[in-house]
Amino acid sequence: MQNTSLTNLNLNRNELGELAGKALAVTLSLTNLDLRYNHKLGKSAGKALAEALRNNATLTNLNLGAIDLGESVGKALTKTLCKNTTLTNLDLRQNWLGESVGKALAEVLCKNITLTNLNLFANDLVGESGKALANALCKNTTLTHLYLEYKCLDEAAGKVLAEALSKNTTLTNLNLKANNLEESVGKALAEALRKNTTLTDLNLGHNSWGKSVEKALADVCAKIPH
């Protein structure tokens, strides 16, 4: 018998295996599902969850953080997100999805109109995927929270992101912590903040910028109405 009343299910850190993951995919009638840190779910369970999301009309919050999804499952999820119309919060942190999945996610952000929160912390999205994600922010009109902390951006992607922030009018929270961004990116971001009117929370910690970036950011902050 399928349960039709349960809406919130938190199973994080339970060492769930492949069979449990597949069973959850079949009975996916929840609105909130947290599976983070279940490293044993396996690739086939991940693909089953991706397929279940394709036609799901109830799930709004999904946490798949740190479950070793890998590239193949990541791509399956991106295909699903192009069709899913209910998911608003997706956490994919620490899955090391890589550049090709990053590019696919960028395409999703250009089309998806429901996702508002996306966490990509520690997914090794440097290179062209970082630039693609940054460019997607020029087209996306629903995303309000984006987490790109730790090895998600290189210098080129950082500059593209700065340009995107000059145009984006929906993003309110952005985390760029620990990306080792160059000084030129810091200055570009400072300039973008002069034009952006919607961002309320920006994390630039652990990027080791010098005095010139500190001054540029301080000048921007000084002009913010108090």
UniProtKB/TrEMBL annotation:
Name of this chain's protein: RNI-like protein
Listed Gene3D superfamilies: Ribonuclease Inhibitor
SUPFAM superfamilies: RNI-like (SSF52047)
Pfam families, per database record: LRR_6 (PF13516)
Signal sequence coordinates: none
Matches recorded under SMART domains: LRR_RI
Taxonomic classification: Eukaryota, Fungi, Fungi incertae sedis, Mucoromycota, Glomeromycotina
Domain of life of the source: Eukaryota
Alphabetical list of InterPro entries matching this protein: Leu-rich_rpt, LRR-containing, LRR_dom_sf
